[in-house]
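User: tokens in, sequence out, please.
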């Protein structure tokens, strides 16, 4: 096993354990639901508590999201640990329960940034926040029929990333490296996640122009390194040397794929990934990954918290904003070997300073539905 991936997996295990302990300690007194009623936006909240609800901090992606949230709260003159972490560990039930408990503990005087874990969970989450008179901004996962303007000012905004086109770009890079022929496997995220669906669709779009490339199989690996290793090992057992390229839905999965391939003595398989994590960028620079895609999670994590916070304080009224400010795409940057070093210097060696009141500066326009 390579050193950095071995270290990554060990950090993931330790971080997951520590955060589970912290969550248990911090949320233990918050288990009882609270009846709020009403549903209308309350008057401006002078000093709202701030929380981020997310999967876990073990991955570099989510660590960067929460780091962005911490940077935002520090810009308010608060210590970064005043940002409350509501860690759902991939459970939509826990996500909703923890948010309800936080609403109860703060009597609804709060602002929440949230990834609902899967799309159907977004509606009960935002309705609970609305009923409490609190404020929430979401990222990544919601159903297409759920819109902030239908819920009201309490549902401030939703940001996602237009993953289909970047995933198609990575697939084309992969197919060119395969010589335009052979067999490809796709290791995806959680099946109900919007980004998992879009990234697989991007692969399928690219396949239309490459008739000599066969999609051997596409299965979910739940964004997880260990599951990526297990799934890739099963693909190798089933398909053997018919596999000549691998399309991964995120960087974490790609790390697992690399380990499964190395276990079989395979060092030169073309692989593409997604997220632009520091370890993945290094792999791109070293030629171990062909490409990854950066979604600027630090900015995304900070601006999502900022939107909920400033709406809660009355700094702006969400319903007075155009729809492209209520539902919008975040930024994406394709990273290949030719530009990886420049990207690393700009975004990873030092984190850019962001104006957390410039809510939509780097965004990419209103979300479009098919």
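Assistant: Sequence out:
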């Amino acid at each position: 096993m390579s050193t950095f991936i071995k270290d990554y997996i060990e950090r993931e295990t330790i971080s997951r354990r520590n955060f589970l302990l912290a969550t248990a300690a911090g949320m233990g007194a918050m288990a009882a639901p609270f009846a709020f009623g009403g549903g209308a936006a309350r008057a401006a909240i002078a000093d709202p508590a701030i929380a981020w609800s997310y999967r876990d901090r073990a991955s570099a992606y989510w660590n960067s999201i929460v780091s962005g949230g911490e940077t935002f709260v520090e810009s308010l003159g608060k210590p970064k640990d005043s940002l409350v972490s509501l860690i759902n560990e991939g459970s939509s039930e826990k996500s909703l329960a923890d948010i309800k408990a936080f609403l109860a503990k703060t009597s609804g005087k709060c602002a929440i940034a949230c990834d609902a874990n899967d799309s159907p969970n977004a509606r009960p989450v935002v309705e609970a926040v609305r009923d409490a008179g609190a404020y929430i901004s979401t990222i990544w996962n919601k159903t297409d029929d759920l819109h902030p303007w239908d819920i009201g000012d309490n549902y401030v905004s939703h940001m996602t990333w237009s993953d289909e086109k970047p995933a198609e770009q990575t697939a084309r890079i992969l197919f060119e490296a395969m010589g335009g022929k052979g067999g490809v496997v796709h290791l995806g995220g959680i099946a109900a996640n919007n980004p998992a669906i879009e990234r697989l669709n991007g692969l399928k779009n690219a396949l239309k122009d490459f008739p000599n490339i066969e999609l051997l199989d596409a299965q979910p690996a739940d964004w997880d390194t260990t599951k990526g290793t297990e799934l890739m090992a099963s693909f190798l057992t089933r398909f053997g040397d018919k596999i000549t390229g691998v399309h991964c839905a995120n960087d974490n999965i790609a790390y697992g794929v690399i380990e499964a391939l190395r276990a079989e003595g395979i060092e030169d398989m073309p692989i593409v990934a997604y997220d632009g994590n520091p370890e993945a960028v290094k792999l791109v620079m070293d030629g171990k990954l062909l490409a990854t895609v950066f979604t600027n999670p630090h900015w995304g994590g900070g601006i999502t918290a900022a939107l909920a916070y400033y709406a809660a304080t009355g700094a702006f009224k969400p319903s007075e904003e155009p729809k492209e400010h209520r539902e919008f795409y975040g930024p994406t940057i394709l990273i290949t070997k030719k530009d990886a070093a420049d990207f690393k210097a700009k975004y990873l060696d030092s984190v850019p300073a962001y104006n957390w009141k410039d809510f939509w500066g780097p965004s990419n326009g209103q979300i479009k539905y098919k």
